[in-house]
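Protein in question kept in full:
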Amino acid sequence: MGYIQKTKSVLKCVLCFPIMLGVFYFTSPSLRLLIGLIPMDKCSLESGKMLTLDNSVDASLDLRSRRDVQTCTSWKAPIIWEGMFDPDLYDRVHKKEGSSVALTVFAVGRYLDEYLETFLNSSEQHFMLGLPVSYYVFTDMPEKVPQIKLGPQRSLKVIQVERHARWQDISMMRMKAIFDTIESDIRHHCTHVFCFDVDQVFSGRFGSEALGDSVALLHAYYYRFPVTLFTYDHNPKSKAYMKTGDFYYHAAVFGGSWRSVKALTEACYQNIMEDKRNNVEALWHDESHLNKYFWLHKPSRLLSPEYCWDNGISYRGDIRVTRLLWAPKHYDTLRTP
C-alpha cells in the first residue's frame, strides 16, 4: 500500500505541475518575458497555394512573410498574423461571395453593466467592417442592454437567458444557447458565426481574413509554451480528458460557418451534460471541452494571439498589432452572487 500511495502522490505532482507553472507565469513578468523567447515551430509549406484552402483567397497568404512565428499547422491550416494577408483583397472576395456574420456575446449579471456597452461600441469600429453583421446579445436583463448606434447592414437582437448561480455554469451553458439560436435563427440569415466573451475591447481590424469554416484562437498566454505544459483536462473521468494536443485554444473567441459552430456547440454541450451526470467538472469548464473538440476535429483556420491579447503580458515583438484586448478583470466583484 505504501508503494501505491507514493505512486499516486508522484502522479498528482506531475499532473499539477503545468497548473502551478501557469499560476507562476500569470503572476511573474520576468517569466513571461523569457517565455516570449521560446521559438515557435515553423511552417513547412512554401506557399499559400499549398494550404488546405478554406477559401480560394487563402492562396494569396504569404506564409514566408513572418519567419518569427508559425504560420501554418501540420494539417495545412493557416495561422493568421499581421503581414500575411491583403485586407482589401479579403474584403472584396467576401463581399462578392455575400459573406455575413453573426456575433454572439453573453452579458449576464454584473458583466452587462461593466463591459457590454464598451464591447459593442468598439465592435462597431473594428469588427467585420463592410460586411453584414448581426449581434446576438444573451442576457438575463434585456431591459438594461444599452442603445448602440449601429452602422449600415448591422442589427442587434437581445435574447433572454437564465442566470445561473455559478459563473462556471453560465460559461458552460452558453454552448446550448448558441446551438439553439443557430438552429432557430442564425442559419437563416448568416453564413458565419463568431462567439465572444464580453470582457474584451476591439482595438484594431478584426476583419474578413478571420472568416473560415472552423476557426480557433491561440491563447495569448500559452502560444509559445511546449505542448507538455498546456493545461488540458487530465481527468480520465471527464469527456474533456486529453493526454496531449496540438495547440492550446482560448474559448474567449471561436467561430466558423454556422454549420461548424452548430456542431461544435452541440458536441461541447452534450459532453458538459454527460460530465454533470457523472458529477465531473472539466478543469477549465467550456474551454477544456472546446480544446478536446478541436483536437478531434481540427480547425481549418487559426487566429494568432493578435486577435485576443492581454496587455499585461510583457512586450512581444511578434505581436505587431492588437485587434482585441482583454478588458480589466474584476472577478472578486463580478463573480459574487
